[in-house]
Amino acid sequence: MSVPYAVGTMVETPRAALIADQLAGIAQFLSFGTNDLTQLTYGFSRDDVEAQLLTAYTERELLPVSPFASLDPDGVGALIRTAIAHARKVHPAIKLGICGEHGGDPASIELCERMGLDYVSCSPSRVPGARLAAAHAAVAATGTQPVTPATG
């Protein structure tokens, strides 16, 4: 009896994102670990900065939102877009997605849809909202308007 399986890897460091072509040469999927990738891209520990600095950064508009709450499109997103391009050059059918709390954030899900990722994963309590956000992002990507239920 054979058991179907896929071999993949987590991409949790900027270097791993930059060498995604090498990883894609031996993997069927890459999953971007957005919590660790965010920490390493920003160069700070989530545990240290969330309580002490991020509130001040967002209040002073140095950051629009905590990069741990919503995926940073310009920094972390740029690394992911680079990794997607490199990986798909080597392995066009590779499955690509994210793993982490960003997978439950509607703005992050919409960014993942725009970047062409195949899936998001998140904690179980965030799955219903993530499914709804993914549906909205998919509809928005088609350029059509969602059907609004009639009220009576």
CATH class: Alpha Beta
Question: CA-to-CA gap between the ends?
Answer: 56 Å
Low-confidence stretches: 147-152
Order of helices and strands: EHHEHHHEHEH
- Work out the count of structural domains: 1
Provide the spatial order of strands within the biggest beta sheet: 1-2-3-4
Number of helical segments?
A: 7
Largest sheet: 4 strands, parallel
In total, the number of strands is 4
Rg over alpha carbons:
17 Å
Q: For this structure, what is the CATH homologous superfamily?
A: Phosphoenolpyruvate-binding domains
Task: Estimate percent helicity.
Answer: 40-55%
Structural class, by secondary structure, is alpha/beta
* CATH architecture descriptor text: Alpha-Beta Barrel
Beta strand %: 5-15%
Mean pLDDT score, rounded?
91
Return the CATH topology: TIM Barrel
Shape: globular
What does it look like?
The chain has one domain (8-142): Alpha-Beta Barrel (TIM Barrel), CATH 3.20.20. It contains 7 helices and 4 strands, in the order βααβαααβαβα. The protein has helices at residues 14-18, 20-24, 34-42, 46-59, 76-90, 106-115, 127-142; strands at 8-11, 29-33, 95-99, 119-121. It has a 4-stranded parallel sheet. α6 crosses α7. The longest helix has 16 residues, at 127-142. The model is unreliable at 147-152 (pLDDT under 50).
